[in-house]
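Problem statement: downstream parser choked on a complex file, so we are re-checking the raw output for the calcium ion run. The parser issue turned out to be on our end (a line-ending mismatch), but while we're here, posting the original submission so the record is complete.
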Amino acid sequence: MVATVMVVEDEPKLRQLLRSYLEREGLAVYTTGSGAEALDIGRRRSLDLVVLDLRLPDLPGEEVARELRATSDVPIVMLTAKSEEHERIAGLELGADDYITKPFSPRELVLRVQAVLRRGRVVADRTVPASYGGGELVIDEECRRVVVRGQPVELTPTEWGILTALARAPGRVFSRYELINEVRGYEFDGYERTVNTHVKNLRHKLELDPAKPRLVETVLGVGYRLGVARDR
Ligand code: CA
């Protein structure tokens, strides 16, 4: 199946360059320079990934991300200005799965896109849903589904990657470095804050009280661990 990517970038040259690189990888590509049009395409088309420039002429990229996120958990890779760390953090808080700072090489972007698409794929090495904490948390890797206290929860690909990594060894502490390698396959500047931000988002979706997390626990100075044991 051909994956479909939407590139939202208002610089025509860069937009065209990204299109040709992504098409060369066999991906179907929609492009637009407008946030409003991006939302329109997002409503009408089934997308596997969105590459989103944060600075668009008509709408802030943050707003485009928020609106896309309101109706789908499509992976988003943000394009941000190098100097603007707050932009990256804002993007990640909106549930972006990755960001890349300008200027970047198109080859690098293609690698990121492929990594995010791979993460979204089903890993069918475990067919039975695993249950944790007396059934409080159920992770079905085959169906890529998470149920918390009986309620299905939608996770972004990065949140899914972090949770399933922790769940493979409940109680074991994973460093932020390990987690970022687990979900991205590489390390980059600012990965610690990135992991922290995704964990914060994950807790808001999973924890009864995100201020007192029980499922995804912090181990000060080390990292994170799944705070409940696997059932059975
Ligand atoms: Ca721009």
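For whoever reads this later: The mean pLDDT is 87.
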